[in-house]
Amino acid sequence: MNRSRLSVVIITFNEENNIGNCIQSVKSLADEIIVVDSFSTDRTCEISENMGATVVQHAFEGHIQQKNWAKDQANFDWVLSLDADECLSKELSEAIFTIKQKQFSKKTSDNKPIYGYTMNRLNHLGGKPIKGCGWYPDRKLRL
């Protein structure tokens, strides 16, 4: 089956409590997983490598700068960008899998080019989802 390849880049700093869930949520989709770590002092890098991710160290210069630097480390054109405390839901994972099988269609149904995909982010505070206050859906361009 000829399909598009997907890089997943994850930025981290001392995320040993979250990185495993994040990586697990993308493992079935990713052709490569790159963890860009800001010199964690916990087990973030060890956990990431044990789960099959490539770890690259890079000093944190700002959130946008780190995300852009991480994207530039990817080997494939399509890149899913996450923070270590983010995980894909089953529904989102299935949707991305379907899009990937269609080789990330370069055109919409009305023949317009597709350059990326946004997704709704559900924020949590104190372990509880926040669906009010304008926090959901928090649409982000991540793919």
What characteristic shape results from the CA principal axes?
A: globular
Along the chain, the helix and strand elements come as EHEHEHEHEEEE
What kind of sheet is the major sheet?
Answer: 4 strands, parallel
The Rg value, from CA coordinates, equals: 15 Å
Strand segment count: 8
Distance between the termini: 22 Å
Could you list the spans in which at least 5 consecutive residues all have pLDDT below 50? none
Q: Which class do the helix and strand fractions yield?
A: alpha/beta
Strand order of the largest sheet: 3-2-1-4
**DSSP helical segment count:** 4
**Beta-strand fraction estimate:** 15-25%
How would you state the average pLDDT, rounded? 87
Approximately how much helix is present in the residues?
A: 25-40%
Concise overview:
This protein has 143 residues and is an alpha/beta fold.
Report on this structure.
The protein has helices at residues 19-26, 44-50, 63-73, 90-101, and strands spanning 6-12, 32-37, 54-57, 78-83, 118-121, 124-125, 128-129, 138-141. With 143 residues, the chain is an alpha/beta fold. The strands form three sheets. Strands 3-2-1-4 form a four-stranded parallel sheet, with helices on both faces. The chain has a two-stranded antiparallel ribbon with strand order 5-8. A two-stranded antiparallel sheet has the order 6-7. The longest helix has 12 residues, at 90-101. The model has no long low-confidence stretch (mean pLDDT 87).
